Fold each of these.
Amino acid sequence: MPTAEKDLADNAAWKKIQQNTFTRWINEHLKCANKRIVDLQLDLGDGLRLIALLEVLSQQKMHRRFNLRPSFRQMKLENVSVALEFLDNENVKLVSIDPGTIVDGNLKLILGLVWTLILHYSISMPVSEGDDSESASKTPKQRLLGWIQNKVPDMPITNFQQDWRTGRALGALVDGCAPGLCPDWETWDPVKPAENATEAMRLADDWLGIPQVIAPEEIIDPQVDEMSVMTYLSQFPKANLKPGAPLKPKLNPKKARAYGPGIEPTGNRVLRPAVFTVDTFSAGQGQVTVYLDHPGGTRQELKAEPNDAKKTYDVTYVPQVVGTHKVTVLFVGQPIPKSPFEVGVDKALGDASKVAVKGPGIEPVGNIADKSTYFDIYTAGAGTGDVTVMIKDPQGLDDVVEAMMEDKGDNLYRCTYRPTQAGLHALAVTFGGAAVPKSPFSVDVGPACPSQIPGSCPGW
């Protein structure tokens, strides 16, 4: 097995990612010289593209002449020697690398050479103009990590491997460099790392000018090495936002809220519309999604009707069965505070409009004080509901005259009461919490008849 294949045989996944990343990094810089490489192992062997890369990175020309058309091995060795001598003059320290390792395509040592260039020309450069002496005393890795931590204080970034695998840290870094460019990163689903990384890196490429020297699927790979990740991230400190970037306000699901009877734990009934409102005024402008989970386990998406400027949304649903329902409210894919809401639904109330009331006790005149009277309440065809009667005396008190209810069967209820004084009484009759037709009834009670004059009162 050739040496290069042996080097790649162990832990091939991370080494292949590193080879891809370093190749892209080189090509990004070689664009200035109208050159590129395809095979990192072979394409630096004649020394020409290595020399071009060093001239781009250092912004200097080679100190010695070199062969522009190296046809023979000795010419290639001389060219690589010129490049390595230049690096030595630049105080770039190389270990175990000589012209022969490059010309012969020793991939392991070529990867080491490229990493040294990345470390010296990209990562070791000042990350900001105001670097203090304390920062300068740190290693390049520590300085880059510290710069990133300062940009994304809400993310616990401590390394260049596992902390980047969900893609959310990339989104946070993009938004940290350009607030408003990627404000939704907090709502990203960590179980969709490829989708997250792709979006963050696209925004960085399009609007910060940060090329994707590592692919989204590579940076989230559990086998990725920190050198590849650092190579990509080292481009951020020098990034500048392009004009016209689609900056958006930061969205915060924690500031959305929902209110209304439709999400209360009690008070909702079968076949009666349940209504509530979702308020996103302080959360920003984003998508509102609402789901209703029925007691049987089925899920239904409810329509959220936007009001003016999409700051509030009205939601209505009609429960079909008794039991505990669950209402889930999402803002940009994330649950708002207190969501999901557990909503208890009771049996349906009857239709009060179908209730009839008859009898002398509700007649406007003809009833007298201190004499019992009654009236009947017919609920046939009105459904299920509690029958209640409340009587207010002439002073407006509702605890003086007692209404005595009797269930006569066959959907018939009789109410008997005995007014204690003359004057206008109000009889409120409800069925299932709703007033029946013509309720409240006004009953003008006449004065009590003198007991000593038999026959002087009606009905005697």
Amino acid sequence: MWGGGAARALPRALRRRRAAAALPGAAGGLRGIVQDFNRKRQLKSSSTLPVSLTEMKSNMFTVKRPFSTSHSSVDSKEMKKFQLLAHKWWDEEGEYAALHSMNDIRVPFIRDTLLSMSSNYHLGNPLSGIKILDVGCGGGLLSEPLGRLGASVTGIDPVEDNIRTADRHKSFDPVLAKRIQYKSSSLEEIVEESMETFDVIVASEVVEHVADLETFIKCCSQVLKPEGSLFITTINKTKLSYVLGIVVAEKIMGIVPEGTHEWEKFVPPEELERLLESNGFSVKTVNGMLYNPLSGSWSWTESTSLNYAVHAVKSGARAQSHATDTPTETDIDQRSATAGTAATVPDSTV
């Protein structure tokens, strides 16, 4: 995630001054960031790009992710990284500041998409009656606003300290304490007991940390009801995401702790769509997302070269036998033409 956290212990105003100093022209945008990087990398031999753009494009679509013999999507190295930060989830000025601000667009995106698919609307609790599984819930940053919208939320995370933090925070609100339950578990561990249980699955900023993406998608399909929705936000695997997500965010500006992300595990939307389609999902929307480190805010964008959000729907019971069918060029064109419409719905109830 570009800007997946904020500089540790720095007040927001100081972080913005620091970001402005690091980004020439302040509001100069992405072009200024890349230009600044080109100058600074001459002084930082460790910041050079690992491969040429040609090699990177080739590897992006030809390297296949290994299918784990243990059929587990949990990466023990990733668990150790998040274990160290488990007590900082609810520090809005800390490492997870950008995830807090991401709620401003991801929560309305989930809510409005679900409401557009349903004729039932409960005033004040628009997601009432909907069972949501929040995979990799961390400290509950996304589980809680979904619970406040009326949903019944189950949050799972393999890091026990994350679950303890989430449980402790929800206990301050009696309503959330009833609507949300947390469990220290991997997705694979709940499959048998939760076959076709959930109406919705959200996996926000998760798939770039899993060990086996194909197993992860298969398990999502197994615990989701037919015609249920899957929402994913993640990072594209591009040259720009390496420059901004790894070099600038981690090595130059220190927006996130160094080592938070591995570029090799970033996921191109084409790869994610292929895995979803081959496991019984129909991809409905792919929207680009952009984080502004100066304002600490997210916005929707047409480009998916950095962060992006996906909404996919599991095939109905009758259609699941055709889940491996390849989408036609017409399907892909229609999906591209409608991408971003859900993101433009005004945020009126969050």
Amino acid sequence: MSISNITVFMPSVLTLTGIPGLESVQCWIGIPFCAMYLVAVIGNSLLLIISKSERSLHEPMYTFLGMLGITDIALSTSVVPKMLGIFWFHVPEIYFDSCLVQMCFIHTFECVESGILLAMALDRYVAICYPLRHAAIFTPQLVTQIAAMVTLRAAILVAPCLMLIKFRLQFYHTTVVSHSYCEHMAIVKLAAENIRVNKIYGLFVAFTVAGFDLTFITLSYIQIFITVFHLPQKEARLKAFNTCIAHICVFLQFYLLAFFSFFAHRFGSHIPPYIHILFSSIYLLVPPFLNPLVYGAKTKQIRVHMAKMFCS
């Protein structure tokens, strides 16, 4: 079934290769990946516990941070266990339907994370540009509605990717996926049929999500910087800017890695496959790993409550 010159009809099992070209060192690559995964799960869980238990942190900013933590845990858990199974235990097989489910989870959580970063940018925009109206605008009801809309948008946009593969593509050149996880284009490229529609829709989803979210995040921070630089006191400018540093760091590393992975997969034919797959894997692990560290280091309230929790 895995020979490339045989056309396979609706394969039941796929084989993930891991990182082609680095098979001999995959067991060592798994060690930092596992460490980042553990830090991501523990760090984001601590953020969730602190933001839930401390009433002073029951604000929109920390609610969105908690949502980001849940998304990061879910995203990394969708990828890392199977990846470590390939690297350490040489279990590359995965059921075709399970592969589609993993693909759906990964891209859904990516869309959700992008939407949460947009919501956090809008929250900072209102808090700094219209501080007296912030509490009236970002009510608990609005925060709940934003969470529902972000999740629904991701599900609606990603579900057709799964349907277009499951019900449109039936014949495959090979069952070997040259990747360490089930990525949309990695699966689509296995097909022996016309994949033009799948490619176009994948591009549409990527540009719709990233284009919309990045545009409004950028506009929000342009307005924030204009407002901050017009503040009369230097201390007030530094305090306002400091509340945005963590978010700026998080969304920059998320989108820079996302764009590299996206364009390398579609247009980087000259890039060695192991470079692209390694960066794609890092892209899914680094944001969940860094987010709790960045917010824990740059947010005073979280630092104080974390120190209090460990001391007690």
